[in-house]
Fold this sequence. Notes:
alpha+beta, Arc Repressor Mutant, subunit A, 2 domains, two-stranded antiparallel ribbon, DNA-binding transcription factor activity, transcription regulation, WH_DNA-bd_sf, DNA binding
Amino acid sequence: MKSDNASNDGGLAGGRVARPLRARGSLTDQAKEIILRSIIAGDYPNDRMPKEDDLAEQLGVSRTTIRAALQALERAGLIARRQGIGTVINQHVRPANLGLQRLAGFEVLLEESGYVSSIEVETEYLAADPELAGHLAVPQGSECLVTRKTFYADTAPAVYVVDAVAAEWLVGRPDAAHLPENLYEFYERYHEMRLDHSVVDISPRIADGDVGAALLLKRGTPLLVLHELHYTFEGRRMGSSIAEVNDHYLHFNVIRR
């Protein structure tokens, strides 16, 4: 049952937890998320960002943290530096621009689309079947951590995500109640390797059997599937993520520079 209160059933060997969403990650990541939410909400007049010193004071962090957060947003094409003007917001920034970049998590996208967002998380350590072994490039039977997340729009399931990593590369065994919603933060905390890039396959699907079942979709209902493979700089595969999205709640587009 979905609940707004965190709980933990022991979790080391797996478990299910339902909880409200809350900020996590480094100070830079948290500052970036707060600024991003303000950008999407239109909190900055005339699409101009406050000075770094002002942002640092507002958020209670150092100017170095603010600068790193702004640099991340600039690299993604969401803001730009203009000589004589300062930092300005890309006029095309909308929640739909951000989903494929994973700058904003699904919970942020749902909230900015007008829904009350919550998440249900289930973790399990299991032996890789042929399909999972192929996704992770590990031998069949290897122990893997599989995390299943259902993001709700109000009370309706809107996005279903399955993240998987090989257990041999984990630093510790994450507790289900405190597992980061964001896979990139998970890598930073628990994976021995460093994430460099991801390759995303985007495909339309029709709900059939297990596909779409977690979203309570009728057979034949269209949905969008994002399959991500995550790599180190050297090209070693770190993990896999598959997101099924009910596009009644979320749409995506891309900013190109």
